[in-house]
Fold this protein.
Amino acid sequence: MSKLSKDTAALLSEGTVKMIIGYEQGTERPRPAFCHTPEDCERLIFNDQCSNNLAVYLTKKEIIGEDKVGVVGNYYVVKTVIQLNLENQINLQNLVLMTVDGDDIITFGSIDEMQQYVDTHEPVPNEKVLAAIEKIDKMSRSERWEYWKSELSKCVRCYACRAACPLCYCNRCVTEVNCPQWIEPWASPLSNMEWQINRIMHMSGRCVGCGECAAACPLELPIGILTKKMGMDIKNTFGGWKDGSVLSTYNVNDKENFIK
Amino acid sequence: MEEKNDNIFEPRIIAFVCNWCTYAGADLTGTSRIKYSTNVEIVRFPCTGRIDFMLLLKAFAGGADGIIISGCHPNDCHYTSGNFHARRRWMVFRDMLDFMGIDIERIRWSWVSAAEGAKWADVVNDTVSKIREMGPYTEYKKAAKFLEEEKIIHE
Amino acid sequence: MMERLIIKSDSINTWLSKIIETVPRVLAPVKIGSKAEFKEIKDAGSVAYDVITTTSSIKSAAFPNTETLFTYEKQGLETKLYDVAEDNFLDTVIWRARPCDAVGFGPLTKIFNWDYKDKLYNERFSRLVVVSFACDKADECCFCTSVGGGPGNTAGSDIMLTKINDEDTLVEVLTDKGRKLIDLCKDCFTDADDSIDKESVLAKVPVKFTREQIHEKLAKAFESPIWKAQSERCLGCGACAFVCPTCACFDIQEDAHGNHGRRVRCWDSCGFTLFTQHTSGHNPRPTQATRWRQRVMHKFSYMPDRLDIYGCTGCGRCSRACPVDMNIAEHLKNIANNE
């Protein structure tokens, strides 16, 4: 049994946690795994193919209930837990967060430790996405409009992007509100664009950049470009803003050049 | 009343303004008898902080050719910080809109206080003549009319 | 009465070009990046023949993602309703469908004609001609043989093509609609010899379970803990329902503009939390486990019991599209082996 399986099995048999959420081997790639008994932990693996953002389960009451849960997640899971905690969506007392770094299993004792890890282990950015952003930036405005209209007209509004995102935890999403109807619920080129714009705006400053939205899209639409671009813009404009979520706070010295 | 020449395109501008500063400023423009373009339809909000970014998209989809957003100057917000929140929101939203190819030149942001009646007239006139030059926002309106491509039987 | 003909491989494009000239709309798989989707084609060369299957199914040809049901206009105290014009429904040929696509129209047609005869679906479906190509390759997500189908199954197709070797392709003409397409290019075809063996060139798809096994197990499985165990990782995203060739759940919405507007039908998924939410606030399927149970039981228990047809064609699209690898064949196998 690997060290990961042994350590997680111990947590379960000692009764420290009621369940471990980690990764197991799936049909072609790793997938989320839920271990309820020490034997279940034998299935756990960890490698750089483990991309699902397990923090999405931490806001699902029907999965974790009021029990203490252990999570063996990747870099983005740790980053997401920090954000979820900032938004008061998780109870840190009920969470044992771990990650695997080479041969070591790191158990985070506090938010500060998580922040430290996140600040020092940032993964290499996805070259393809960066190249795509550059290409789009160079287009003229109407070329950009045509590009996004043609890409997003393929969208069928399955909301896999929303379901895969751990920060999309609203009980009733804005698209599911009829009064007022902010976004048309049926798929059409414009309403699909409105949906993405809305999603990005609601994600601004909160998105951790895991890319699971793009990975979940069954039609492989380039929505990861949007979240990445938004993340870059926020970083460039607001720097390392740490005083709360970017859009729910403000700075009297924010500078812009378009309000006259 | 301005004379309307049927051959010239008259833009439709929606203005989202805050009640305490810009709306009052627009009132002042009126009481000062300053003439300005009539193409603008004003929507009054208690504060710019209340303006949801989706409303701008709704305005374009509903047929607006241009949008004005205006509120109290920073540090003068009637609710202290509403316009600071709004400012942050617009900084992010504007970049996102531009990246998606929506014409941000058609959106005019300004701070107009309750004493700036003349400024309001200038903002409106400027915006109207700019949009008149740019023409109607057809590409957005076309995208909004997706379902209308289906032909319906009419008796 | 099935006819067996042969077409030479280099005549296929000639025939397809004739079809494109004559038929208002031809849909075929087209490569998009590393995947493929059914798109309207104007040129016989744009078809992607080397993909196992497309990401989305072909059900949108008869049951589109978004469609207008009718429009209305208030005139004084009256309201006038207007139907969708006939010229909206185009005669369509679906080229290079897979057997699992063609067979999917069976359950769809039953659902849309079960009690209310859905005029829009029937209009669109009656104008479809399905030309399927038998499969010589399959992947781990395919399981057509476990649900009463197979890589050469002709159910639901009007014509089926099977590549016998580099030169010859077997053409099975199954319906009158298919016959009409053949007649567009009569010289392209010759009669097929009885010796042509279709089975030998088909893909080998191992049988993982049988429908009868599943149906039997499901009859006693409503309260089983297996539903929670299988659905723990499910995100409730809706991708599976949207790519499935037989899923027919829809939502009806209004595009209202004051005194005129239209009623719109669009796809929905039983996997969404709000799908069965009542106005009272009660939700009879409040957990992902109950919704997963519904998905499986609907396709393998309720549909065969009430409509006499199974709701799964074994195409495997749901498994390929699922972000958390809810491999339905794997889940079904576990159900079959569960006591």
In short: The longest strand of chain B covers residues 13-18. The helical segments of chain B are 19-31, 53-61, 82-100, 117-134, 138-144. The radius of gyration of chain B is 17 Å.
